[in-house]
Amino acid sequence: MTENIYDALRESHERQRKLCKKLLRTQPRTETRVSTFTELRIELAAHAAAEERFLYAPILMDDMGLSSARHALHEHHQIDELIEDLQVVDHAGSAWMATAKALSHKVHHHLREEEKKFFQVSGKILGDPQKSQLAKRYRKDYGRMLKTLRQD
């Protein structure tokens, strides 16, 4: 069976869930906290960029998907803002962990909503050949974004 866009996205979703869980278990003033946060930040950014290009954009073009795609984009923006907050706050402080918890909560909420609602709406809009093609384009762009972000 040919892979579809949802299979590809779920792989990254699982990585995001695991990294959020790992991040919340890190101790202040450790390299593990910094490296886990960096890994999560890069994973979220690469995933969001490729997902927005190869799932959200086609769904935005259909009236039936407009509202849910805009909502998903808004949640990506909220996640971006939490990441920015975590980059400027002292990694050892309690405020940092409170923001990390808020990020984890937002990521889990977004993934759950996307998998339970957005995938169903978009699945009615996209045909099977398009879902397969979008998976290939998503994977290629996701890999390119990971490489680019790791170099920064």
* Strand portion: under 5%
Overall 3D form:
elongated
Number of self-contained structural domains: 1
Rg over alpha carbons: 16 Å
Estimated structural class: mainly alpha
- Give the CATH architecture: Up-down Bundle
- Written as H for each helix and E for each strand, in order along the chain, the element string is HHHHH
Helix proportion: over 70%
Tell me the CATH superfamily.
Answer: nmb1532 protein domain like
The separation of the N and C termini measures 37 Å
Largest sheet: none
| Strand tally | 0
Weakly predicted, low-confidence segments: none
Structural summary, described in words:
This protein is mainly alpha-helical. The chain has a single domain, classed as Four Helix Bundle (Hemerythrin (Met), subunit A), CATH 1.20.120. The protein contains five helices and no strands. The chain is elongated and about 50 Å long.
Could you write a compact summary of the structure shown?
This protein has 5 helices and no strands. The protein has 152 residues and is mostly helical.
